[in-house]
């Protein structure tokens, strides 16, 4: 998803992370592209705060980084063949751009890129986890949960209906993106993730994704109390970004209603994997998602 043309184009036209320059690496074999990687020069490359916790020596210094923070799945095809040349090109490009560091963010531990970076002698540092699970039917999903978690989801569905809540999945061009932006910004500020959903560009970015995005709106008597912007690719449904207002009338969780509809929508779309994104580990573990360790691999230019 994060390497589709629409997504990368949106990153350049309406960046969600402050970037100073974009670089696009293409490896070719006999003229045929075998690997691509976008990278971005970032001066304050730490909207989720985790990078400078694991790389304190890089704090405040410009870095050329693979993709942006809103991508949690760094990937380079044909890694074993192209990685040495890619690293050399990254270092030269970073030097030209005045970066002091370059490297990769959100590399899933144990995947092909992770193994190739380790083989190249580049140690990784744990950054965060992303959460995912497989899906078939909604009843099968519920059956895989603990008795308590299953009962909570069903009870929340009943209580939200009693409280006058409606849940609707919409294409991007029918969603209330201005309202959703405000709710996402407010939610991020509660977790000190200010700047992760810049209000001036978020709606433009989501609109540019077109059919690659789905929006879920949860409303109580017309008022938006939760919303999620979800991304879709061939096999995965990404619960990418959400906003929640917990000041509601009634004993229900708007986030719970949003999550349940996300699972249902993924199943309706026939996508076998639910990607739950990062953070909120306790909820996701309780609701059947499993962690995948994500590492950062930075090196000084």
UniProtKB/TrEMBL annotation:
GO MF entries: acyltransferase activity
Superkingdom per UniProt: Bacteria
Keywords recorded for this protein, A-Z: Acyltransferase, Transferase
Presence of the UniProt keyword Acyltransferase in the record: yes
Protein name: GNAT family N-acetyltransferase
SUPFAM superfamilies, sorted: Acyl-CoA N-acyltransferases (Nat)
EC number in record: 2.3.1.-
BioF2-like acetyltransferase domain sequence ranges: 149-285
């Amino acid at each position: 998803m994060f390497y589709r043309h629409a997504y990368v184009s949106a990153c350049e036209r309406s960046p969600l992370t402050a970037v100073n320059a974009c670089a696009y690496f293409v490896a070719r074999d006999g003229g045929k592209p075998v690997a691509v990687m976008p990278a971005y020069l970032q001066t304050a490359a730490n909207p989720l705060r985790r990078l400078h916790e694991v790389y304190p020596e890089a704090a405040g210094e410009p870095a050329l980084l693979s993709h942006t923070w809103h991508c949690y799945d760094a990937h380079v095809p044909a890694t074993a063949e192209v990685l040495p040349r890619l690293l050399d090109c990254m270092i030269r490009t970073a030097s030209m751009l005045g970066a002091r560091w370059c490297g990769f963010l959100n590399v899933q531990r144990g995947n092909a890129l992770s193994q190739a970076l380790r083989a190249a002698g580049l140690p990784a540092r744990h950054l965060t986890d992303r959460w995912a699970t497989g899906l078939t039917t909604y009843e099968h999903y519920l059956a895989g949960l603990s008795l308590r978690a299953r009962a909570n989801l069903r009870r929340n569905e009943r209580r939200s209906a009693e409280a006058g809540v409606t849940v609707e999945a919409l294409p991007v061009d029918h969603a209330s993106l201005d309202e959703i932006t405000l709710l996402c910004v407010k939610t991020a500020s509660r977790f000190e993730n200010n700047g992760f959903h810049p209000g001036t560009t978020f709606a433009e970015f989501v609109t540019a994704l077109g059919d690659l995005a789905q929006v879920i709106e949860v409303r109580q008597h017309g008022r938006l109390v939760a919303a999620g912007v979800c991304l879709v690719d061939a096999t995965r449904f990404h619960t990418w970004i959400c906003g929640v207002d917990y000041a509601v009338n009634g004993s229900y969780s708007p986030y719970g209603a949003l999550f349940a509809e996300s699972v249902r929508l993924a199943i309706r779309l026939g996508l076998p994997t639910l990607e739950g994104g990062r953070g909120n580990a306790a909820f996701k573990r309780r609701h059947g998602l499993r962690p995948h360790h994500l590492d950062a691999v930075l090196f000084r230019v």
